[in-house]
């Protein structure tokens, strides 16, 4: 069974940056000025394994999900 790494993209209101964080981690992976940049990075990270990306809106609700696989 492959290791699964799930990520969440959310807006950090203190810095006004879009943050990528791996589930279970207290540290952010990356921070970006736009949500699109953060989503692209999260999909890349999740694609290294079989992972899911939860994309939050500004209010903190899940607006979309993406499943990424390293299979070609």
Measured as a percent range, the helix fraction is: 10-25%
Distance between the termini: 17 Å
- Cross-sheet strand order for the largest sheet: 3-2-1-4-5
Supply Rg: 12 Å
Q: Keywords for this structure?
A:
single chain, 72 residues, 5-stranded mixed β-sheet, 1 helix, 18% helix
What does this structure look like?
With 72 residues, this protein is of the alpha+beta class. It has one domain (7-67). 18% of the residues lie in helices and 39% in strands. It has one helix at residues 35-47, and strands at residues 7-12, 17-22, 30-32, 51-56, 62-68. It has a five-stranded mixed β-sheet with strand order 3-2-1-4-5, covered by helices on one side. Strand 4 and strand 5 form a beta hairpin. The longest helix has 13 residues, at 35-47. The protein is globular. It starts with 6 loop residues before the first strand and ends with a strand. The mean pLDDT is 86.
Question: In a nutshell, what does this entry contain?
Answer:
This protein is an alpha+beta fold and 72 residues long. It has one helix and five strands; from the N terminus they run βββαββ.
SSE inventory with pairings:
Blueprint (H helix, E strand, L loop, with lengths): L6 E6 L4 E6 L7 E3 L2 H13 L3 E6 L5 E7 L4
Parallel strand pairs: 1-4
Antiparallel strand pairs: 1-2, 2-3, 4-5
